[in-house]
Amino acid sequence: MTSTEQTLSAPRTPAGPGDRRRWLALAIVMAAAFMDLVDVTIVNIAIPSIQRDEGASVGQIQWITAGYALAFAAGLITGGRLGDIHGRKRLFLLGIAGFTLASALCGFAANPEMLVAARILQGGMAAMMVPQVLSIVHATFPAHERGKVFGLFGAIVGLGAVSGPLLGALLTEWNLFGLEWRPIFLINLPVGVVALLLGRRFITESRAPKALKLDLVGVALVTLGLLMLLYPLTRGRELHWPVWGYVSMAGAFGVFVALVAYERRKAARDGSPLVELSLFRVKSFAAGIAVQTVFGVALGIFFLVWTLYMQIGLGWSPLRAGLTGVPFSLAVSTAAGLSVQKLVPRFGRKVLQAGALVMGAGVLLYIWEAHRYGLSIASWQMALPLVVMGTGMGLIVAPLTDAVLSEVPREHAGSASGLINTVQQMGNALGLGLVSVVFFGVIGDRLTRAEVRPAFVHAFQHALWWVAGVMGVIFLLMSALPKRPAQHVEGAVAEVAAVESALVG
């Protein structure tokens, strides 16, 4: 996420300690960050209801989540640079206004196509809004107060991780005013309007004295390449894998080659490429980028197939599915705090590698339980594998950013941090696209009503084998990370990077 990029050049004249307006500004930007985080987690739990009520196809339900992730990833770095150039407050307000409007369009979508389009718009607006949040904090608070502020952000991350699925489940179950799943989006409207009105009054404007230029051609090439890869993946099964799909996916790699060539020329011309290619000469950074991307793929696959398994395969209600996930969220939050504060300072890279093995072991345990208990599995029987998986994920997600940045030159720390979180979102979108292959590809096209649930349970187990394999790849890639990750950036910026990684992870 590019807000770290801006913090390195943010003004060092924050509001005085006696200015209480800064705490109101903090509440406003934290509300926006919470709204974005919850919006990511709240949608998954409602996907089966959306599919049932709207008659959405397999590809459409994938794009409801993947479209958001793709637009968010493609716009993160540009959104941050726009804030540098035109003002963080201005871009934040514009982003939150657009995010609120997009939420309304999602809530009142007349068909699946409109919902997908609104979700893509929502992701683009989040990319404009979210990068400004921590930059505004950095520009508003003196250094000695930032530890407390970032601690609050950590609490917000944990709260959002737990409350998002539960809130989505409750809003879907309650069927408020007969709107079914739509309140999961409409709930953003009052929050967005209040944040917009108060933000205009209490947030102080700030800009970067030396902002990097925009790279819109780079953004266009990244977006085109991902679309050429993802669209055939999500539609291929429904269209019986046409030839043009394979041509498109092969062509995507040609687009990425063109992106590399263009970024080299852009760096030589004005020093402000979208992707700082020189970073990839740092072995630990290149491996870390691979870890973030592949980790995003694993999460993209797991979270979508998990909710489909529980609600369609097992026939559970959204509320039961949401409550079942609470042990996982609590384990992630607990292990993340323990990892950063106690374990990594003592054991270094081994903690991250242990996290990959623990998460993989949790996946294997889940496969075994899903196979043993089949359709009769209970929520409490899922608790153990979910806690093991959550513990492994927590050991990875919090310290990973510092490990990847550890050997990056200080002058490139901001660009590196922005790229780390961007590729994780891209990996997430790719994982969601792969659901067509690893999950729906196992389910037959013409199933009787009696065959649907067993087919979804079997497909879930098949998809989890893919996730377990991905965790093995991540473990191997982590061997290239520094044995003892060192904080090479100033304390406040390091804390920003850690919080950002959790926010989008």
TrEMBL record:
Residues 25-487 form the Major facilitator superfamily (MFS) profile domain. PROSITE patterns: MFS (PS50850). Pfam families: MFS_1 (PF07690). It is found in: Cell membrane. The keyword Cell membrane applies. GO terms for cellular component: plasma membrane. Keywords: Antibiotic resistance, Cell membrane, Membrane, Transmembrane, Transmembrane helix, Transport. The lineage of its organism: Bacteria, Bacillati, Actinomycetota, Actinomycetes, Kitasatosporales. This is MFS transporter. The keyword Membrane applies. GO terms for molecular function: transmembrane transporter activity.
